[in-house]
């Protein structure tokens, strides 16, 4: 395993050479992932690895793809989507226009999941799904709406568990091991690169989804990002986090009301 | 009363897969409240099982269960259970962190990931216990605990429902203790100072 001081040096070098700040990332996870990249590269020394990162922007980018976690799935935690479908969409439906933000969308599986339930609720036509990630590579992938065909069995089960009634395979065309999702779903998505560490609010939203992203940040950065979400959320808007994440320590509890046991909070003032 | 050879212990981390829950359900109801260390349990299970395991252990254990969420503090006297579908990691400042990265050894939570992470932070003050299972997960982790100076304990394969995992660990390390279920219980009780 790499040393803490080596990790700190890498973090400083990345910031100095590329302006990307890993300083407030959760160290245990970051260290493990950097260590993996370092081992895979079969470097003679950590110094050799550092100079490769500094001198080779192409290598740097591929390293970022490896150390930022991009594991996601469609309808991850089906019960969450069931609650969104049953309890939140009927409220959002009363609005003339619905703006959603998927912060840290990765390869887009959850954005397409949301588009599907919006469509089934008859709301997709008046919705706009902003999807952002810090990683440009995954954004390009998300835009395509192409996911591995081998995942579809699990995703269609998740979809059913989330209250889906349709034939899930109607939403994609299967071809040579891939599933290409219908262009109609993507027609209401806007993808862009956005860094939660350093970028500001860019719009006002009725719902912000940021699931299993904050776990990679330390508690100070979590507070900053929750405040960024607060600034970006309309009154009575919803904030949804991952099943093990909370806003409890980050923001005044009088401002937000939690929906039962779900990791969904409504901004009440 | 006999004294434990383990001098200092801040965390007991227990990993297991198939057959390990049976062992735990024999140990936990008999384990009195502890004062000097925390217990962390990492068990393989279905990703959809979010709270069932935790609820079951809460029901059976005299030691209070601290529900794991991102960045909760690790406190002596409490029992923690790695949530399903996340890797459980240890931060240097005594808090727990979660990670949804790729499965390791087909598992999330992976025992190796948690054991390795705990060994880095707690080093000699860590006791790792590996229980029954039919997977190689846990071997690399228990090795890491030993290399960092911690104490390693493996369930006696003869007492394990699935002996593969303990056997694999025994073949790749020199365990400090190989214990059956009753001995495991006595061993943990003696650790409390």
TrEMBL record, chain A:
<dbReference type="Pfam" id="PF03705">
    <property type="entry name" value="CheR_N"/>
</dbReference>
<protein>
    <submittedName>
        <fullName>Protein-glutamate O-methyltransferase CheR</fullName>
    </submittedName>
</protein>
<dbReference type="InterPro" id="IPR029063">
    <property type="entry name" value="SAM-dependent_MTases_sf"/>
</dbReference>
<dbReference type="InterPro" id="IPR050903">
    <property type="entry name" value="Bact_Chemotaxis_MeTrfase"/>
</dbReference>
<dbReference type="InterPro" id="IPR022642">
    <property type="entry name" value="CheR_C"/>
</dbReference>
<feature type="domain" description="CheR-type methyltransferase">
    <location>
        <begin position="1"/>
        <end position="247"/>
    </location>
</feature>
<dbReference type="GO" id="GO:0008757">
    <property type="term" value="F:S-adenosylmethionine-dependent methyltransferase activity"/>
</dbReference>
<dbReference type="InterPro" id="IPR000780">
    <property type="entry name" value="CheR_MeTrfase"/>
</dbReference>
<dbReference type="InterPro" id="IPR022641">
    <property type="entry name" value="CheR_N"/>
</dbReference>
<dbReference type="Pfam" id="PF01739">
    <property type="entry name" value="CheR"/>
</dbReference>
Automatic annotation (TrEMBL), chain B:
<feature type="active site">
    <location>
        <position position="17"/>
    </location>
</feature>
<keyword id="KW-0145">Chemotaxis</keyword>
<dbReference type="GO" id="GO:0000156">
    <property type="term" value="F:phosphorelay response regulator activity"/>
</dbReference>
<keyword id="KW-0378">Hydrolase</keyword>
<dbReference type="Pfam" id="PF01339">
    <property type="entry name" value="CheB_methylest"/>
</dbReference>
<dbReference type="InterPro" id="IPR035909">
    <property type="entry name" value="CheB_C"/>
</dbReference>
<dbReference type="InterPro" id="IPR000673">
    <property type="entry name" value="Sig_transdc_resp-reg_Me-estase"/>
</dbReference>
<dbReference type="GO" id="GO:0006935">
    <property type="term" value="P:chemotaxis"/>
</dbReference>
<dbReference type="GO" id="GO:0008984">
    <property type="term" value="F:protein-glutamate methylesterase activity"/>
</dbReference>
<protein>
    <recommendedName>
        <fullName>protein-glutamate methylesterase</fullName>
        <ecNumber>3.1.1.61</ecNumber>
    </recommendedName>
</protein>
<feature type="domain" description="CheB-type methylesterase">
    <location>
        <begin position="10"/>
        <end position="184"/>
    </location>
</feature>
<dbReference type="GO" id="GO:0005737">
    <property type="term" value="C:cytoplasm"/>
</dbReference>
<feature type="active site">
    <location>
        <position position="137"/>
    </location>
</feature>
<feature type="active site">
    <location>
        <position position="44"/>
    </location>
</feature>
């Amino acid at each position: 395993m790499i040393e803490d001081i080596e990790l700190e040096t890498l973090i400083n070098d990345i910031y100095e050479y590329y302006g990307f700040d890993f300083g407030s990332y959760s160290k245990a996870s970051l260290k493990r992932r950097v260590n993996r990249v370092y081992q895979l590269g079969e470097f003679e020394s950590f110094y050799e690895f550092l100079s490769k990162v500094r001198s080779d922007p192409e290598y740097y980018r591929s390293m970022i793809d490896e150390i930022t976690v991009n594991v996601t799935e469609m309808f991850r935690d089906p019960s969450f989507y069931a609650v969104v479908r049953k309890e939140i969409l009927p409220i959002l439906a009363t609005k003339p226009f619905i703006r959603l933000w998927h912060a840290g969308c990765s390869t887009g599986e959850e954005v397409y999941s949301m588009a599907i339930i919006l469509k089934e609720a008859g709301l997709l036509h008046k919705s706009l799904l902003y999807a952002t990630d810090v990683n440009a590579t995954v954004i390009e992938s998300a835009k395509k709406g192409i996911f591995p065909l081998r995942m579809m069995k699990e995703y269609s089960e998740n979809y059913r568990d989330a209250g889906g009634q349709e034939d899930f395979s109607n939403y994609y065309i299967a071809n040579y091991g891939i599933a290409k999702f219908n262009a109609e779903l993507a027609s209401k998505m806007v993808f862009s690169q956005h860094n939660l560490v350093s970028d500001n609010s860019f719009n006002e939203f009725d719902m912000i989804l940021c699931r299993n992203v904050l776990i990679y940040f330390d508690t100070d950065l979590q507070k900053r990002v929750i405040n960024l979400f607060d600034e970006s959320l309309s009154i009575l808007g919803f904030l949804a986090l991952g099943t093990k994440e909370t806003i409890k320590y980050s923001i005044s509890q009088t401002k937000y009301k939690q929906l039962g046991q779900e990791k969904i909070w409504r901004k009440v003032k | 009363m006999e004294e434990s050879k383990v001098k200092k212990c801040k965390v007991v981390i227990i990993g297991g897969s198939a057959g390990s829950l049976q062992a735990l359900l024999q140990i936990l109801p008999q384990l009195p409240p502890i004062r000097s260390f925390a217990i962390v349990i990492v068990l393989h299970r279905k990703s959809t099982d979010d709270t069932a395991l935790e609820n079951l252990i809460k029901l059976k254990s005299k030691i209070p269960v601290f529900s794991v969420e991102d960045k909760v503090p690790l406190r002596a006297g409490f029992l923690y259970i790695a949530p399903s579908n996340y890797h459980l990691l240890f931060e240097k400042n005594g808090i727990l962190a979660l990670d949804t990265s790729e499965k390791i050894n087909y598992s999330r939570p992976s025992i190796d990931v948690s054991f390795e992470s705990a060994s880095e932070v707690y080093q000699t003050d860590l006791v790792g216990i590996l229980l029954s299972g039919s997977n190689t997960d846990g071997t690399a982790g228990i090795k890491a605990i030993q290399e960092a100076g911690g104490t390693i304990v493996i369930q006696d394969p003869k007492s394990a429902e699935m002996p593969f995992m303990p056997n694999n660990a025994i073949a790749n390390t020199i365990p400090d203790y190989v214990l059956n279920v009753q001995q495991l219980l006595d061993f943990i009780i003696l650790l409390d100072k």
